[in-house]
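seq:
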Amino acid sequence: MSHLRTGETLVFATHNPGKLREIDELVAPFRLKVVSAGALGLPEPEENGLTFEENAIIKAVAAATASGYPALADDSGLAVDALGGEPGIYSARWAGASKDFSLAMQRIENLLETQGAMTPERRTARFVAALCLAMPDGSTEIFRGEVEGHLVWPPRGANGFGYDPMFAPAGQSGTERTFGEMTNEEKHAISHRARAFAAFARAILK
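struct:
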């Protein structure tokens, strides 16, 4: 089992500012020196895996190999039950080259309406995150987190990123707020990425 200690450099293998912001906040208590793959000018590898875990491994290994530092990569997405788990690992691609998630959310809503999925019970979904820690020697470790919920329309809230404004996590005592309406602290308490990170922290951060 690999371990990271205070002051060590950790490359976060992303070019997504939203993901980088969340990881920065999660890592802050452990006082690691986090630098993004984007800031280092590392290229984005082709994500041709068939699972969240496979894509996280691809990104983490590429960043660790290129930088010479331990690298953490996240692959995450939204899995909608009525759509057979789509968009799943293709969640970012549904937003297109322009990363326009308003279009991606509209696409999901159109598909749900076509199926007559208009009640919360028929609009169940989950966010999934797989984190991979890759060391420069090529070793890897995987951590997974999920959060259940359902989709709302129209999207609500300007916080978060991606599909957050249409995802209402379960267990809110009837408030039905979306991730887009929550503060960073509230989201970090229950999100898929936070749950995966908690498993990573327990195992790796000392």
